[in-house]
Specification:
The complex is a heterodimer. Chain A has one domain (2-494). Chain A has 20 helices and two strands. Chain A has a two-stranded antiparallel sheet with strand order 1-2. The model of chain A has no long low-confidence stretch (mean pLDDT 84). Chain A is mainly alpha-helical. By secondary structure, chain B is an all-alpha fold. Chain B folds into two domains: 6-78; 84-152, no CATH class. Chain B has helices spanning 6-27, 41-59, 64-78, 88-109, 111-125, 131-152. Classes of the chains: A mainly alpha, B mainly alpha. Chains A and B meet through helix 8, helix 9, helix 16, helix 17 and helix 18 of A and helix 1, helix 2, helix 3, helix 4 and helix 5 of B.
């Protein structure tokens, strides 16, 4: 009952006309950006952060949640129409979505994606509403040692679950943490790695790094791969679904939504793994499993509901613990910090407007996706026909304006270029970008927790293993790193 | 002597970087009041971790699939038959130079003029030849961004040579 009352309070905030307008802007812009191949929710969120500069935190986060949802939906659209997923989380959608589009059923596939996303989002919001307050209560008892261990787990989980090399993932995470400590140490006032530069005294802004290694690097990559022609897309056709089709997708959507939500809650898992799990689960359960990959509607419904549910799930650790479980929620955390809000267990009590306002607005964002974006999708999809050179130049302008508008510093524009080139090298040689952004966001928080814990213990490092919660979290972190190694060894032994 | 693969070259670069990073960590001054842990501890841990990981990267076997994907990634660059302005490497280099130029020209020229120049110029550089559409699209988007930021959000943007 208490959750229901709180949700009503959240709706009273989210239904404010200004906030409604920002939900719409967020969902619409997120869909547009997410649709562009290569630009996923992380780029979409980073590109939209400058708009939140002067907004109050509740409105800012409401906008960001809309962008997140919209970008995932936009990614599905390019997966279905072009077989070019804008985001990893919608790769599984293309397995059956694109064959459907080739058969002239792109509209149906898009409608299924929208309905499945709506149900997945709704179920995840219900889960978030009930689990988040419970987790907040547990997290209140966490001390700095537990937080440090939790952040170590968050980082290792993201690294171990990425499909790239474990060592490269860890290197990216360490590099992110190294960037995070540039500037003046707030505890002692000592300068670190500033090279005497006044511009670096306040540290490197996360937006500069995020836009550099995601958006700018993606533009460079597209230029380098010579892929500047406008891709041919399939016609959309009718968006209507028959009753039999709705019945067919009901059970897969329900199951995958629950699975997706819990996958999203786990650190490191998120939308990509959620969607693949949902897809493979339904492929096994379905009587017509052999038609998966050839345009089966369940093959679109399952990953779409799972990835949207995972998005909602990933808000649980972000809002209750203040620890992002994925690269995308790390960008969201960065945006929150820019707005002066530090999420964590106290957020529920100190900023209920932000907490419940966001939950309610996520629901409204889902409705907007369904009611506005779905009918508009034939028009929105026209962006895919826009000349690629013009689009690339506009993305660059958005990056530059975003960075300059934040700091009014030409130096930051030069840094943006440097991170764009670093991102390009990472992309070319298989270094994942998400651990870097997570390391960047968590680095400063990890150092603070580590130092506070060691101050409490008088410099005794055993504090991290003396506390049971911290010990368990660190063991899980170590296991999560060991898992890919064991998996490889088993595969070798089998071969 | 066996030729180094790209991972090993990157590992060597990272080893040099981490040694430099560690050297700088040892130069971080000690805080006058004794504390259980000082500003240099975290950077030292990070430097050591990066050093160890770089060594691991050097000796890491490149999985065949990774090689394949990397080749797939790099191939368009190395084997590109396109020459001159349309060569992908030249395109990236030109874009980087344009961004640098923008960074230094935004204040003297002003936001509006420099952003339109950058946007229109880059679209042309990337091969877009419909100048009217290019100018109208970039110009209107930059103008909207300028009005939104300066008039609605109250963010100061340099006017430069233009009076507004």
């Amino acid at each position: 009952m208490e959750s229901f009352t709180n949700l009503m309070y959240g709706f009273s905030i989210a239904l404010d006309p200004i906030n409604l307008m920002y939900v719409f802007i967020g969902v619409f812009a997120g869909t547009l950006i997410g649709m562009l191949p290569g630009l996923g929710p992380m780029s979409a969120l980073a590109l939209m952060i400058p708009i939140t500069f002067n907004l109050n935190p509740a409105t800012g986060l409401i906008l960001m949640a809309g962008v997140y949802y919209g970008a995932i939906f936009g990614g599905s659209t390019s997966s279905i129409l072009l077989n070019a997923p804008g985001v990893a989380g919608t790769v599984a959608t293309s397995f059956d979505g694109y064959p459907m589009a080739q058969k002239g059923m792109a509209g149906k596939a898009l409608a299924i994606a929208a309905y499945a996303s709506f149900v997945g989002g709704t179920i995840s919001i219900i889960g978030l509403m009930f689990i988040a307050p419970l987790l907040s209560k547990v997290a209140v008892s966490f001390g700095p040692a537990e937080y440090f261990a939790l952040m170590v787990l968050g980082l290792t989980a993201v690294v171990s679950l990425s499909d790239k090399s474990l060592v490269k993932g860890l290197i990216a995470a360490i590099m992110g943490m190294m960037i995070s400590i540039v500037g003046m140490d707030l505890q002692t006032g000592t300068e670190r790695y500033t090279f005497g530069s006044i511009e670096l005294l306040e540290g490197i802004n996360f937006l500069v790094v995020a836009l550099g290694i995601f958006a700018l690097a993606e533009v460079f990559y597209m230029l380098l791969s010579g892929n500047k022609s406008t891709p041919k897309r399939n016609a959309i056709g009718s968006l209507k679904l028959s009753m039999a089709e709705v019945k067919d997708m009901a059970a897969p959507v329900g199951r995958s939504s629950v699975l997706g939500f819990f996958t999203g809650v786990l650190p490191g898992a998120g939308a990509t793994i959620g969607s693949f799990l949902g897809y493979s689960m339904e492929k096994r359960l379905a009587k017509d499993g052999d038609t998966f990959g050839k345009g089966n509607i369940k093959g679109v419904a399952a990953p779409e509901s799972a990835n949207n549910a995972a998005c909602g799930g990933s808000f649980v650790p972000l809002l209750t613990l203040g620890v992002p479980g994925s690269g995308t929620t790390a960008v969201l955390l960065g945006a929150l910090l820019v707005m002066g809000v530090t999420p964590g267990p106290m957020m529920l009590e100190q900023r209920p407007d932000v907490f419940w306002g966001v939950i309610a607005s996520m629901y409204i964002g889902n409705i907007f996706l369904l009611v506005l974006n779905l009918p508009l999708i034939p028009y929105i999809a026209k962006i895919l026909d826009a000349p690629r050179p013009l689009l690339l130049s506009l993305i660059l302008i958005f990056c530059m304006v975003g960075v300059y508008g934040l700091s009014f510093s030409s130096f930051d524009l030069v840094l943006l270029l440097a991170f764009g080139l670093i991102g390009l090298v990472m992309r070319l040689y298989g270094f994942p970008a998400a651990p870097m952004i997570l390391g960047l966001i968590l680095g400063a928080l990890m150092e603070e927790s580590m130092r506070r814990a060691l101050q409490i213990s008088g410099g005794d490092w055993s504090i991290f293993i003396d506390k049971p919660i911290s010990l368990v979290l660190l063991i899980i972190a170590a296991l999560s790193l060991g898992l890919p190694v064991v998996k490889k060894m088993i595969q070798k032994a089998r071969a | 002597m066996t030729r180094l693969n790209i991972n090993q070259i990157l590992a060597l670069v990272l080893v040099i970087f981490s040694v430099g990073y560690l050297w700088m960590a040892f130069q971080i001054p000690v805080f006058p009041i004794p504390r259980p842990i000082d500003s240099d501890a975290f950077p030292k841990i990070l430097g050591i971790c990066l050093l160890v990981l770089s060594v691991l990267l050097f000796f890491e076997k490149q999985p065949k699939t990774e090689n394949a994907s990397q080749q797939e990634d790099v191939e368009p660059v190395t084997e590109s038959s396109v020459t001159g302005m349309q060569n992908p490497k030249v395109q990236v280099l030109g874009t980087a130079i344009a961004i640098l130029a923008y960074a230094f020209l935004i204040e003297p020229l002003g936001f509006l003029l420099s952003s339109i120049l950058l946007g229109v110029g880059l679209a042309y550089w990337f091969g877009y030849r419909q100048h009217g559409v290019n100018f109208a699209t970039v110009g209107s988007i930059v103008l909207i961004l300028y009005l939104l930021m300066s008039k609605v959000m109250g963010i100061y943007l340099p006017t430069g040579v233009l009076p507004f």
